[in-house]
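The freezer alarm interrupted the setup, so I double-checked each line after restarting. Inputs confirmed:
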Amino acid sequence: MTRNEGGRPLGIGLIGTGYMGKCHALAWNAVAAVFGDVARPRLEMLCEVNEDLARERAAALGFERAGADWRMLVADPAVDVVSITTPNQFHPEMAIAALEAGKHVWCEKPMAPALADARAMARAARESGRVAILGYNYIQNPMFREIEAMIAGGAIGTPFQLRAEMDEDFMADPATPFNWKSASSSGHGALDDFGVHPLSFAHRLFGKAERVFCDMARPFATRPDADGARAVETHDMANVLLRFAGGVQASLLLNRSAWGRKGRIAVQVFGSQGAIVYDQERMNEVELYRAEGPVARQGFSRILAGPAHPPYDRFVPAPGHGLGFNDLKVIECRELLRRIAGEPSVTIGFEEGLEIERTVDAAARAFEAGGWVEV
Amino acid sequence: MTRNEGGRPLGIGLIGTGYMGKCHALAWNAVAAVFGDVARPRLEMLCEVNEDLARERAAALGFERAGADWRMLVADPAVDVVSITTPNQFHPEMAIAALEAGKHVWCEKPMAPALADARAMARAARESGRVAILGYNYIQNPMFREIEAMIAGGAIGTPFQLRAEMDEDFMADPATPFNWKSASSSGHGALDDFGVHPLSFAHRLFGKAERVFCDMARPFATRPDADGARAVETHDMANVLLRFAGGVQASLLLNRSAWGRKGRIAVQVFGSQGAIVYDQERMNEVELYRAEGPVARQGFSRILAGPAHPPYDRFVPAPGHGLGFNDLKVIECRELLRRIAGEPSVTIGFEEGLEIERTVDAAARAFEAGGWVEV
Amino acid sequence: MTRNEGGRPLGIGLIGTGYMGKCHALAWNAVAAVFGDVARPRLEMLCEVNEDLARERAAALGFERAGADWRMLVADPAVDVVSITTPNQFHPEMAIAALEAGKHVWCEKPMAPALADARAMARAARESGRVAILGYNYIQNPMFREIEAMIAGGAIGTPFQLRAEMDEDFMADPATPFNWKSASSSGHGALDDFGVHPLSFAHRLFGKAERVFCDMARPFATRPDADGARAVETHDMANVLLRFAGGVQASLLLNRSAWGRKGRIAVQVFGSQGAIVYDQERMNEVELYRAEGPVARQGFSRILAGPAHPPYDRFVPAPGHGLGFNDLKVIECRELLRRIAGEPSVTIGFEEGLEIERTVDAAARAFEAGGWVEV
Amino acid sequence: MTRNEGGRPLGIGLIGTGYMGKCHALAWNAVAAVFGDVARPRLEMLCEVNEDLARERAAALGFERAGADWRMLVADPAVDVVSITTPNQFHPEMAIAALEAGKHVWCEKPMAPALADARAMARAARESGRVAILGYNYIQNPMFREIEAMIAGGAIGTPFQLRAEMDEDFMADPATPFNWKSASSSGHGALDDFGVHPLSFAHRLFGKAERVFCDMARPFATRPDADGARAVETHDMANVLLRFAGGVQASLLLNRSAWGRKGRIAVQVFGSQGAIVYDQERMNEVELYRAEGPVARQGFSRILAGPAHPPYDRFVPAPGHGLGFNDLKVIECRELLRRIAGEPSVTIGFEEGLEIERTVDAAARAFEAGGWVEV
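Predicted 3D structure, all chains:
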């Protein structure tokens, strides 16, 4: 069911048109054309910080109406689903208001800077009876689906170790001035900025983390500002060790000052019969090693994305032609529609997202404590 | 200018909704949202082989009207641009009719099975004064743009050799029954099916081919059919040697029976000061070697696509996040709009496309002759 | 000076002819031919567990005399240098005896199962005035030398993070019966079996570790034995976090049950101006990223080993032709001769090796404590 | 039998101690130690251009006697095998003299600048009844052996296409002065300098070439010399197309002006059930694709060299630790000893080498003719 209770295609409201807002808009424009099995959503209304910008963006992004008041948007009867892509601090208020107004919510991750707010969001979702999911788009990659299928199907036997690295270099230059990312008000640093992504992988594959240890560090003690230099308050690097309920040992190495890394989320999973290797920078590939057949022929197989990895087939009928980052949001959009229709769906709801945020919070406490913390 | 002479946004007609038809439709849906600097096109009408299918696809792809008569579409006054994505044999009639009706044409490559038809298309385009371009989408990859910039800027000195390989494996299984791809009516085989793509690269980089040699071969003499086996008439493999006007020596190795290759277009360019390496299967990367600095530090640099490679920035503001195959069509669409607006544009028009088809034709004759043929 | 005090070429004694013993023998046979600047050593005597085996190996390995009594070997006046390649538990007794007999010692790593023994060995070396080095051959790779030169020369600015992974799969099969590697008498498991190698890298690059945290795990609780199953006492997996004196944050991920990994020692170093990536499985390559020049051209450069990376040039005059694992021992042998001659030398002596073993010991204690341990 | 007719270990004579001469010497020093199943050869005599150099080299390389007269060496009764590593033009006279003196001959490739001389060498070998082999060391790589085994065992079904590229960059710099490599007296250029190596692969895998086409080109028309500039007479680039007796279509792309390539011999073999990919720059790896099992799991497997690929096991007992270029010569040496002992052996004798040189000669004629030439 991709129509609302009145039988009309779902009406969409979008708050924010920055990096992820545009990404949501592209997904809403494309989802019906790509999948061919959903009613084409009505792009009803879009909010930006002022009316002029809102109108300009609505024209480009194909939304019918535009405004500067997000409360009007969440109250609008023509709107069935609200995409929230504003800065993290606004997520709680907007998401809770939308849920209370009876809308479904598609909110970008992470949920909120403070764990208490995330808890409130999860509670609002539960009480509303509406669908509320988070934008963990990397889990939508057909190659990550294939990894899930490999593990579930026993392709590597019993998994016992996970390694994940997430690295970019937007904080790598010591000459980058002090900005909000270096202020403690933005959170811990790489830990929460990055950690939630590999944790979304881990959550899908191995469930809840049980205990966690963490070491955070600053590559640069200060950064330039108007007065010369200002002490950096966040940590651009975090090394996290974890244990999962099923016994899996894990490590997350997070660095947003890693020169040369642009969108690296490198994952290795080792099991009793094989191993899986993946890197988001080459998101159309996954490598599988299986301990079977003659030893002289064993090796990591580099598998290229293709129609055998649904829903790749909805985008391109030929293998090896490559999906892109924005395509993942289109898949996420389709999964959201599935969840709204009450169908099985690959999504991380507010409740599940809260688990991820609790793990991040435990890691931060472990760093302070210098020892293991139970999640 | 992305509006028509009446000041309205351009009206789009789409003929065909298969592999490339859907790709065109996705591009027409996305181009305004991605680029933000064009009037959102009106998706006026779509044609398919019957009305039911046409209506179904129009609903999914966002077109207002649907029909089974392409002649009505090309005559429709609300249509300004016609996307032609039908099988190659229909291209000439449709493209010429559209041009004669005063429409701009966006036609998938190759132009036509017969060189004479391609000539007629080029003539019609010239006489119409309208824009007529071919769907050579690989040249739209920002990484290919970067290759052009590297060569134009002297990053590898004077280029003197080009190697290109294009390989897929959809004909690699000897158990695949005889189908139209094995019939001579479809053309020569890998030579024209694949050759035009690397030739579009070569054309952009080095202009016209001067002479050509060709060896074609069949991996399988027969293929299964209802009567047991039928002799294969096309050649799934072609090795082509060329010389370009500026003196560049080139080779094209084409194989559509290459197990394991899915969308490989591997390019190597060697010059007096460096080299460039590219593979479409990793379309977000390009490798550059420069003979400069200490020898102990020289190596091929693997460059990841990012905002520094426009128009990547219109899709994602962060580097290393990856474009996909369908995104290339969105870029091509924007370039078509530029050309319609009389702005500089990266496109291969019918006239230039004819050059590519002439080279293919000369290669086929060289294979018969067993010696060099002048293009 | 590659001659002894009597002016004769150095006389060599070899104890053990297994994996590393043969490797030492190959190095002693090759060092003069490869380097061309040392007196060809006299291969005097070889010891094995029995005389027959000793004689057979001496004939193959080119040693003049053979025996089963290592004490005779270390006492032999014709022997100047003793290669010790027996199981770790024998290292202390043999090395100390050889040093006390006035011989130089080339002992395989790690020093000894117990830290106290390693301390005794370091003391014996110090008191003897003789050269005593450990077989940390990976630091002899010309590409590792290049990494040292890069860092020392500021190619990546100030380094602030090290990641190292060491993985093999010889313990990955759950069907492998319980053997000495699973018994606690062999040590901790991956931590000491593997950890010393990446620590030898870290020691060369960043000096002493200051504090360490460690999580060890067992992929398999039991292994098959004659009685059905026996509880595994060692840990095949260890995740270690460290801080070095200069402030470098480090992680060592060690796994000897990592299916598909054969000789992986993957190293990443991040600094304020660039990054370095290396993997021992591709030991003739190193990757360097430098944050300089136009952003559109920045990428990791894959540098192939060549004569510009001495002493590669002594093995092959052409670049890209590849050194092998055994060649590293030949380089180590040359460095040992340099140290004996009192020249600057890239070697890890007993004193420095003790530092590495102390770090391993601290990690084991940190695992017990569940918190940081000062080294 | 690795002893001579008198029951003594074979006596070795070496002519030339340059690049390949040193490589032979290292192999003669190592072969008994590595393999452990051959009598340790006696390194009898070595010749260089003058006595001083010869003595110096003999001391370093472990030869007992030294001289400047190669005729004395080939006549010496203590010499059973003669290694010939001098410049190509000297091969015929030396090899024929050695064979006539009843010695076995191990001669570096190519055989001789002129085809007539190669024919005379093959005749002399035939008439002598002695073993005469050529130094095609790349075929000794255990990974190439694995490729042979894969193809012979049907791992890729019926092979139908071979692609080989051989590239280095020692002629890539236009500032490199005119030297003997640019003079026509040295041969054709890349064609014979490089072509023989991939042809040795092709010869092992697919037997004789039947017909050949060739396009050669010069990256630089002139090179600097004392008088300013001198016209280059050889061709640093050659593109060769071939057909083999069994129907295999092949291409050789050869370039010794290919910036960034250091020791690349890239091979691709396509067959009816799979494909094989190999690159000498990563000589410890081979990639295999098999069209079997679920499509979603198919991919190129990267196989790392290990003990499962004999005789790797004789060098290192652990997989993934890597052989080097010089190790290939040690294997070749062992194969030579096998052939002398009348055992099955992987070697290219003078007769087989002549086939390779005939193919090169036919390619040169095809370039002149501009059409196919039968070999």
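Quick read of the result. Chain B has a mean pLDDT of 97.
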